[in-house]
C-alpha cells in the first residue's frame, strides 16, 4: 500500500497537508474522515490514531500524526522544490521559526474565530456572547499584526522571496475566519497582496478546491443531535 492521508478539508492542518501533497505531485490515497459526522471517533479510526484527530499520514506500517511533522516528512521523503523547506541554514530557520510560533497564536485564534463567529450557531444552535466574540476578534487582530509586522515585513512571502511551508500553514489558518465571514484581509493591503501571491503560487484551482468546504461552512445543515453530543467535549477542548 502506498501513502495514505486521513483528512477532512474542514480542518486547517489537513488543508495544508492536502495542498502540499497535491501541489508537489505526491501520490496518495485520500481517506476522508468527516469530523462533523464523528467519523474520527470511530473504533476503526482509533486504530489509526488513538488521539482521534486528523491529519494522519500512513506510509506502509508507518503512521505519523501532527501536520507540521507530516509536512516535514513529505519534504524529506519526496523531491520537492527547495523553497518549501530550504537547505540554507538561516532560510530554513525562518520557516522553523514561523512553524513553532503559529501553534498557540495564529492557529488558535483562527480556530476560535471560526467557532465563535459562525460554527457555534451552525453547530451548537446558539451564538457566543457578543463580549466573547469581540474578545476573540481582538485577539485575532493582535496576532495578525504580528504576522504582518514580524513575519511578513516587506517581503513577498513569510520566509522571504519564495513560498514555503510557513506560507502554506498560515494561509490555510487564515481561511478559517474568512469562511466564518471575518474580513481579515480588509484594511490590511500587505496581507491581502500576500494572499494573492500565495494563491497564485499554489494555483487558483487547487486553492479553491482545498477551501471549498470551509468557505461553505455557514451553509452546513445542523448536525445530527446524537453526533453533536459526542462531538461537543472535543470541540470545547479545541477552542478553549
Ligand atoms: N496539532 C495537530 C496538527 O497540527 O495536526 C492538531 C490536530 C487537530 O487538532 N485536528 C483536529 C481534529 O481532528 C481537526 S482541526 C480542527 C477542525 C475543526 C472542526 C471540528 C469538528 N479534531 C478532532 C477532535 O479533537 O475531536
Describe the structure.
The model has no long low-confidence stretch (mean pLDDT 94). Helices cover 59% and strands 7% of the residues. The chain is α+β, with helices and mostly antiparallel strands and 240 residues long. It is built from ten helices and four strands. The relative contact order is 0.14. It has a four-stranded mixed β-sheet, with helices on one face. The chain has two domains: 3-81, 3-Layer(aba) Sandwich (Glutaredoxin), CATH 3.40.30.10; 84-239, Glutathione S-transferase Yfyf (Class Pi), Chain A, domain 2, CATH 1.20.1050.10. Helix 1 (12-23) runs parallel beside helix 3, helix 1 (12-23) runs antiparallel to helix 9 (204-215) and helix 5 packs antiparallel against helix 6. It binds S-hexylglutathione. S-hexylglutathione binds at residues 10-13, 35-36, 40, 52-55, 66-67, 231, 234-235, 238.
Task: Give a brief outline of the structure.
The chain is α+β, with helices and mostly antiparallel strands and 240 residues long. The chain is built from ten helices and four strands, in the order E-H-E-H-E-E-H-H-H-H-H-H-H-H. The chain folds into two domains: 3-81, Glutaredoxin (3-Layer(aba) Sandwich); 84-239, Glutathione S-transferase Yfyf (Class Pi), Chain A, domain 2.
Amino acid at each position: 500500500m502506498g501513502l495514505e492521508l486521513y483528512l477532512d478539508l474542514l480542518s486547517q492542518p489537513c488543508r495544508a497537508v492536502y495542498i502540499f501533497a497535491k501541489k508537489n505531485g505526491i501520490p496518495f490515497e485520500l481517506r476522508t474522515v468527516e469530523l462533523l459526522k464523528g467519523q474520527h471517533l470511530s473504533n476503526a479510526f482509533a486504530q489509526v490514531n488513538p488521539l482521534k484527530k486528523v491529519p494522519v499520514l500512513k506510509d506502509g506500517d508507518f503512521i505519523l500524526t501532527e501536520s507540521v511533522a507530516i509536512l516535514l516528512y513529505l519534504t524529506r521523503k519526496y523531491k520537492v522544490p527547495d523553497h518549501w523547506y530550504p537547505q540554507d541554514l538561516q532560510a530554513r530557520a525562518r520557516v522553523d521559526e514561523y512553524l513553532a510560533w503559529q501553534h498557540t497564536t495564529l492557529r488558535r485564534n483562527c480556530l476560535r474565530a471560526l467557532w465563535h463567529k459562525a460554527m457555534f450557531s451552525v453547530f451548537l444552535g446558539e451564538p457566543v456572547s457578543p463580549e466573547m466574540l469581540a474578545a476573540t476578534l481582538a485577539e485575532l487582530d493582535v496576532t495578525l499584526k504580528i504576522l504582518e509586522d514580524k513575519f511578513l515585513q516587506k517581503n513577498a512571502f513569510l520566509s522571504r522571496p519564495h513560498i514555503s511551508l510557513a506560507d502554506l500553514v498560515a494561509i490555510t489558518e487564515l481561511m478559517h475566519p474568512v469562511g466564518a465571514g471575518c474580513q481579515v484581509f480588509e484594511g490590511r493591503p500587505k496581507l491581502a497582496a500576500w494572499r494573492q501571491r500565495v494563491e497564485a503560487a499554489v494555483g487558483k484551482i487547487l486553492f479553491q478546491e482545498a477551501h471549498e468546504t470551509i468557505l461553505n461552512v455557514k451553509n452546513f445543515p445542523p448536525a445530527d443531535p446524537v453526533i453533536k453530543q459526542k462531538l461537543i467535549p472535543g470541540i470545547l477542548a479545541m477552542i478553549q
